[in-house]
Amino acid sequence: MAESFVIPRMYSDASGECRFDTYEVPLTLQDAAPPAAPFYTANPFDATRYIFFRIPPGWVGDLHPAPNPRLVICLSGSLRFVGSKGAFCILRAGDRLLDVNTTGDGHVTEVVSDDPVEGIIIRLD
Known about the structure:
A seven-stranded mixed beta sheet has the order 3-2-1-9-6-11-4, with no helix packed on it. The chain has a four-stranded antiparallel beta sheet with strand order 5-10-7-8, with no helix packed on it. The protein has strands at 3-12, 18-30, 39-41, 49-55, 60-64, 70-76, 78-82, 88-92, 96-100, 107-111, 117-123. The chain contains no helices and eleven strands. The protein is globular, with a radius of gyration of 16 Å.
């Protein structure tokens, strides 16, 4: 049985519409930290930098494309990404989103929790 890691993805389709689907990352059993037992890992991805962020309750980021491909990891609070035609994805603590919606009209981002959203953005360009 092949192992994989499935992550929500936000992307721009050929007409520039913001869409959501899932991205499947294949995993293989590796001796990643000997002498610890092997565990499943993906092939390495390049990342150029990362930032921690905190966004207050009620914050709304107007319609925009992402400035670069990124992995968004939510550590606390809840963040909603709204794409074309009302499609959306909500991240809660522990959730992640592959954001490659870098062209077209983009998406709206909003804090939907009563607490600030804290997280990490990892640039993938």
